[in-house]
Amino acid sequence: MSRRALLYSKRVLAFITFLAVIYTLIMCNLLFFSGRAPGVNYQYNLVPFETIRPLLLERERYSTEAWIKNLFGNIVLFIPLGIWIPWLFHRYRSWFRLTFIVVLILLLVETIQLITRVGSLDVDDIILNTVGAWIGFAGFRLLIGSPRKTRS
Questions:
Q1: Among 87, 131, 81, which Cα is nearest to 105's?
Q2: Strand-strand pairing, 121-122 and 44-45
Q3: pLDDT digits (tens, 9 = 90+) for 46-101
Q4: DSSP class of residue 4?
Q5: For residues 135 and 79, is the Cβ–Cβ distance under 8 A?
Q6: Main-chain phi, psi angles of 47, to 5 degrees
Q7: Which residues lie below 8 Å from residue 23, measured CB to CB, with a gap of 6+?
Q8: What is the pTM of this model?
Q9: Which residues cross the membrane (predicted)?
Q10: Domain ranges (residues) in the chain
Q11: With left for phi above 0 and alpha for psi between -120 and 50, is residue 35 left, alpha or beta?
């Protein structure tokens, strides 16, 4: 069995699906439930890089924990999204399509946070989360390879 055939065997796809479900449940818990309660004074940011810029340019204002959590946490937690979406859904194996579906998912998450007042709607979260998905997609491409077009 070829490596490519093995990576798309029913067992491997079932395992990736299982991991995707577990990942989704963990992320829902982190984003909506774990230590979160609806806020009275809800804050939001619709200006790109407004929260990223101070984290990068005024590093001394933030504790190491806050700095790592806000920058790298928002990237690292979404790396798996860039792996399992294209692995399970063939149509999202281009950078554009993957970016489109990831941004839609993230807009849904941020909108739910806005409506429920849990967490905060922040366009910078969408930017950092998308970067994480891109890193995952780059890893997916390295592992699986890019789709090859056959000559007619």
A1: 81
A2: parallel
A3: 999 999 999 999 988 999 998 899 999 999 999 999 999 999 999 999 999 999 99
A4: H
A5: yes
A6: -100, 115
A7: 80, 81, 84
A8: 0.88
A9: 12-33, 71-89, 96-114, 126-144
A10: 3-144
A11: left
